[in-house]
Design a protein that fits this description.
Blueprint lengths: L2 E9 L5 E8 L4 E5 L2 E3 L4 E3 L10 E4 L5 E6 L1 H4 L3 E6 L1 H11 L2 H10 L27 H14 L3 H13 L4
Antiparallel strand pairs: 1-2, 3-6, 4-5, 6-7, 7-8
Helix pairs in contact: 2-3, 4-5
Length: 169
């Protein structure tokens, strides 16, 4: 048995660190080693930023995710272990990237979408774009009505068209 004890990162009232749990490394499954990227000077790990060693992701026998970052050989730093939530483990795999990470995602999180990204703003798509030209007088009336109802011009035009098609004014 190779028992790894995991501690919290915040100093407690007694001046130490809280013990969060432990797991048997020999019984855990090694899931993934982080991939690397070029930072302009050398290849570094995309999760840890280390050059020599790589961060590792494990799944314990009990079903918990564990990350290991051993920076002792590189920075004479700590060998840290921490528990991850399912979301953190999924994000770890996505961020790491590469064929091995894709295989791990397919095995452990098969419902992960093919792509995701930030909402860059703007109104959600409501249909295909339609262009129309209006004389200045009509456009001024549409803009005045939009301001009165507190909506944008495009929304006001949609409302007027729908109301017209329903026989309303």
């Amino acid at each position: 048995m190779n028992r790894i004890t995991i501690y919290g990162t915040q100093i407690n009232d007694e001046g130490g660190y809280d013990r969060l749990g432990w797991f048997d490394l020999d019984a855990a499954e090694h899931v993934l080693e982080e991939s690397t990227r070029w930072n302009g000077q050398s290849m570094i790990g995309v999760i840890s930023g280390m050059q020599i060693n790589r961060a590792q992701l494990y799944r314990t026998k009990g079903g918990r995710w564990v990350e290991n970052q051993d920076s002792r050989p590189e920075f004479n730093g700590p060998n840290t272990w921490r528990f991850l939530t399912d979301d953190e483990a999924r994000n770890w795999m996505v961020k790491s990237g590469g064929p091995e990470a894709e295989e791990a995602l397919e095995k452990w999180f098969p419902d992960t979408p093919d792509e995701a990204g930030p909402n860059l703003g703007g109104r959600p798509t409501v249909g295909p774009k339609v262009e129309v030209r209006l004389d200045p007088e009509t456009l001024a009336k549409v803009d005045a009505r939009a301001a009165q109802e507190g909506v944008k011009r495009a929304e006001m035009l949609r409302r007027l068209i729908v109301a017209s098609l329903k026989g309303e004014r």
